[in-house]
Specification:
The chain is of the alpha+beta class. The protein has seven helices and four strands.
């Protein structure tokens, strides 16, 4: 069973030249990229994406960061994509992320943690709709999936 999740390479990941590394890790894991675009988030998009944090004292800094430069938004799909991507990302605080995770390998601080991934399948649906129109998300299969997936 395939599920989709939103993944963002945040402005720090873009500036550090980690777009290809992050996409490559997703694809080498066996996940499929169903949508991909580089964009610059504005304040309205930041407010929609981080709606649950708008009233919190740290929101202004969060919004300033996510709007500070280009980001890469993608829809990644595969079995248990949400849980798989979250495991690959590592925990929010890179200093507590295991080596082998994106944050564990490349991050040093909570504020500059490189990547975002949806935290549940339900939230993934909501977040994908914030960043992509339905016709921008393509569904496809790959012949090699018979060598990755059971069944």
């Amino acid at each position: 069973m395939s599920e989709q999740t939103l993944v963002l390479v945040k402005p720090d990941g873009v500036q550090r030249g980690l777009i290809g590394e992050i996409i490559g890790r997703m694809e080498r894991k066996g996940l499929r990229v169903h949508a991909l675009k580089m964009m610059k988030a504005d304040d309205a998009l930041a407010r929609r994406h981080y709606a649950e944090h708008v009233e919190k004292p740290f929101f202004p800094g969060l919004a300033e960061f996510i709007t500070s430069g280009p980001l890469v938004a993608m829809v990644v799909a595969g079995p248990s994509a949400v849980a798989t991507v979250r495991q690959m990302m590592g925990v929010t605080d890179p200093s507590k992320s295991l080596p082998g995770t994106i944050r564990g390998d490349f991050g040093l601080t909570i504020g500059m943690n490189l990547i975002h991934g949806s935290d549940s399948p339900e939230r993934a649906v909501e977040e994908i709709a914030i960043f992509f129109q339905p016709d921008e998300v393509l569904d496809y299969s790959r012949d090699m999936e018979r060598w990755i997936l059971e069944g």
